[in-house]
Amino acid sequence: ADWAAAVAAVHGVPAGGTVLLVCHVNPDGDALGSMLGTALGLRRLGITQLQATFPGATQGSPTGGYGGPPEVPEPFRWLPGLDLLVPADAAHPAPDLFICFDAASASRLGALVDRLQTAGTAVVLDHHASNTRFGGIHLVDPGAAATSVVAEGLLSRLEVPLDAEIAQCLYVALATDTGSFRFDMTTPAVHEMAARLLATGISPGDISRRIFDTRPFGAVRLYGDVLQRAQLEPDAAGGVGLVWTYATLDDLARHGQKAYVLEALIDSVRCAAEADVSCVIKQVGPAEWAVSMRSKGAVDVSRVAVALGGGGHRLAAGFTGRGSVEDVIGAIRAEL
Ligand code: 5GP
Ligand code: MN
Ligand code: MN
Predict the structure, then answer these.
(1) Last residue of one domain, picked from the residues 212, 247, 265
(2) Which of 136, 151, 168, 170 has a Cα at 20 to 30 A from 206?
(3) Which residues on neighbouring strands pair with residue 282, listed in sequence order?
(4) What is the pLDDT of residues 121-175, one digit of tens each?
(5) 101 CA to middle of ligand 3, Å?
(6) 65 CA to middle of ligand 2, Å?
(7) What does each C-alpha distance from 307 to 26, 245, 312, 332 come to in angstroms?
């Protein structure tokens, strides 16, 4: 990782200079947490012209007044630093420094991709093995459990001390991407980082309850419908068991729910012991689906995702599917 260049880029922001932080489209806990934690750290350094955004972010405060999607998912609307969030089309057109978070490729930045050209310097913080190194300075560590691990590394090299607000952001990111410290990438270094974050006095129980365990009652009923139609295909591809289900926009409307409530659906589906690969197909448009895939180890689902135009990690990946549910699951079966 190019730490020295990244530190120099931050120190090189002129007085009154602009910094734009961006994370990937449909931001998750790691995208938002690593971005906002870093933003708060830069504010502590005295940088005042700071903006944070993500592709499609709309007008209004994230704690109310949002016009419609895309928006900050409700479970993250309490994060410190959300006051730095601006609508994507209000973001500085040519910032002195541009930093992007948790995006494996430029396509994950939507229309904000043009800042790679217009910015004085573009720094990429990420942990995807598939990162295409699309910026100027790269802090990309495929061994890191979350982008927030890289963000903490940068803040410490900038000599920004961790405070509770920064720690809440980085903890949300770390807890999200490690599945609450359950996945294999939960190394001793991850627990050591968690210890540093907890030492600032933040409450892990409170944070976990807010981000993982608080959903509207309608989401409980919605899960009932969607799990009821799950399919098990014990021999989907050469003996690799596949379990899958789908959720339509009508399912969401019937229960009065927003798309973010389906984020954790894959965790319920992937329990099926008979399946190595699990898949959730979530409708986002008339013939457009956000697909989540998980593997228990036998299959590298990122290869399936990349083959179908997406990306991700070996055991967790996704892509945008087109056509009908049958078209999408058929394409997955074929790739498996
Ligand atoms: P999830 O299933 O939780 O939405 O995503 C799991 C992982 O798959 C993410 O961390 C991300 O790396 C990757 N991923 C999900 N959807 C997409 C997509 O549409 N395009 C790409 N390139 N990666 C995706
Ligand atoms: Mn992410
Ligand atoms: Mn991540």
Answers:
(1) 212
(2) 151
(3) 247, 290
(4) 999 999 999 899 999 999 999 999 999 999 999 999 999 999 999 999 999 999 9
(5) 8
(6) 25
(7) 21, 21, 11, 9
